[in-house]
UniProtKB/TrEMBL annotation:
Residues 3-67 form the Polymerase/histidinol phosphatase N-terminal domain. It comes from the Bacteria. Pfam families: PHP. This is Polymerase/histidinol phosphatase N-terminal domain-containing protein. GO terms for molecular function: 5'-3' DNA exonuclease activity; 5'-3' RNA exonuclease activity. It comes from Rhodococcus rhodnii LMG 5362.
Length: 287
């Protein structure tokens, strides 16, 4: 049984449409896939409509949050939210605010690039992006303009946090985000907390602090985690009785990791589904 609980479509920063994402998941031999676009549920309906009969779809989202870094200062943290009620008012309003933050940020970064002489059109980027625009959309524009050769090059250079073009955004405080997901009947899982290649790391002590707020799991098995970090996170999840998830963090051609490269154990998936009250999985119930 193969279960991948973190995948992105073109409704955020992936390159596959939601329909193509579920088709690709079935072609990859997955039994379960989660659609987890950034700060949006826009792909849910299309993914559900196109879901192959053999595939179970978990509807989710990856939320932009501000956690506590190991140095005590704010650090970006991503929170995976599964099987929540998308109509829950507070959570829906916060997702809308986050998407507006994304638009403002990308427009500001693109404008800085254009002012510096790069052939970047802010209006075109925003018009061509899905409902949740992000730096990968800028990366594609930079490739088209001949500034960089790849998405990875863009993130190492003009899109890096140390770049003159970089603009921050105001993310949701992590504890507030966990509480919103729980209040919406969803299951909150901290995404890739040891992704060292992305920069500063969150303080793992905060994970224990979030359990009373409703945190249910940790994404342990991930392309950006070393074997040593997997062992640390696995032990922490066991200590706190949290669900352990694994996933590819698939982005289509924006990243090289294929669907199913990392997976979730069936018993952990069952715990996650049992904890949700906001919405149901679609497709075969795995037993």
């Amino acid at each position: 049984m193969r279960i991948d609980l973190h995948a992105h479509s073109s409704e955020s920063d992936g390159t596959d449409s939601p329909a193509r994402l579920v088709a690709a998941a079935a072609e990859a031999g997955l039994d379960v896939v989660a659609i987890t676009d950034h700060d949006t549920t826009a792909g849910w309906e299309a993914a559900a409509a196109a879901r192959p009969d053999s595939l179970t779809l978990v509807r989710g989202m990856e939320m932009s949050c501000a956690g506590r870094g190991e140095d005590g200062f704010d650090v970006p943290v991503h929170l995976l939210a599964y099987l929540f009620d998308p109509a829950a008012p507070a959570f829906a309003a916060e997702r809308e605010r986050l998407r507006a933050e994304r638009v403002d940020r990308i427009r500001a970064m693109a404008t800085r690039m254009r002012s510096a002489g790069l052939a970047i059109d802010p209006d075109r980027i925003l018009a061509e992006a899905g409902p949740s625009v992000g730096r990968p959309h800028l990366a594609r524009a930079l490739i088209d303009a001949g500034v960089v050769d790849s998405v990875a090059d863009a993130f190492r250079g003009p899109l890096s946090t140390s770049s003159e073009f970089y603009v921050d955004k105001i993310d949701t405080p992590l504890a507030d985000a966990v509480a919103m997901v729980a209040d919406a009947g969803g299951v909150a899982v901290v995404a890739h907390p040891r992704a060292r290649s992305r920069g500063r790391l969150m303080d793992l002590a905060q994970i224990a602090e979030l359990v009373p707020d409703g945190l249910r799991g940790i994404e342990v098995h991930h392309p950006d985690h070393s074997a040593a970090d997997v062992a640390v996170l696995d032990a922490l999840a066991d200590e706190l009785d949290l669900v352990v998830t694994g996933s590819s963090d698939y982005h289509g051609s924006n990243k090289t990791i294929p669907l199913g490269a990392f997976t979730t154990a069936p018993e952990q998936y069952a715990r996650l589904v049992d904890a949700a009250t906001g919405t149901d999985v679609l497709g075969p119930v795995l037993g």
